[in-house]
Specification:
Number of helices: 5
Mean pLDDT: 86
Number of strands: 0
Low-confidence stretches: none
Structural class: mainly alpha
Radius of gyration: 17 Å
Helix content: 55-70%
Order of helices and strands: HHHHH
């Protein structure tokens, strides 16, 4: 039974991170931390961006949860930390690999779900680099969940 409970904690933590990430992206990164996130919305070929700082920020809670969970005899905090870490790995693979191709990953995918994630994220970046860019016009702040309208096939797919 404890294996099932631990698995459930990992899944809930993973899914919960999508909610946390969406909220932080919309209200923090596009809010008072815009200065740090802004370079992600400016077309460039830099290997590292100020925006990459957020990966470290998100890594701290998972590290602490894993550490304190192990110190307490592998309690629920360990599994919360694992769920957050798995979300971080997924984020890196999907956002940096698939969508922005910072490292080549699935460059020619035909998977409908992965293509919808790309469409949703590119809608978020639709106005980047334009003179009249306004961060308040951005849409689709999530990473693994996108509105249904991005699942519709386009002729270019």
């Amino acid at each position: 039974m404890s294996y099932l409970y631990n698995f459930f904690v990992i899944i809930i933590s993973f899914v919960g991170m999508e909610i946390v990430a969406w909220s932080l992206h919309k209200y923090v990164m596009h809010g008072f931390m815009w200065y740090v996130h802004m370079d992600h919305h400016i077309p460039n070929n830099k290997k590292f961006q100020r925006n990459d700082f957020f990966a470290l920020v998100f890594g701290i809670p998972s590290w602490l949860l894993i550490m304190f969970g192990i110190m307490a005899g592998c309690d629920y905090r360990l599994y919360m930390g694992i769920g957050i870490t798995l979300y971080g790995i997924s984020y890196m693979l999907i956002h940096d690999g698939l969508i922005h191709q910072r490292f080549k990953m699935f460059p020619n995918t035909k998977n409908r779900y992965l293509l919808s994630l790309k469409r949703g994220h590119w809608a978020h970046h639709k106005h980047d680099g334009k003179k009249d860019y306004n961060k308040d016009n951005d849409v689709c702040y999530g990473m693994l969940w996108v509105p249904f309208r991005f699942f519709t096939r386009k002729k270019s797919d």
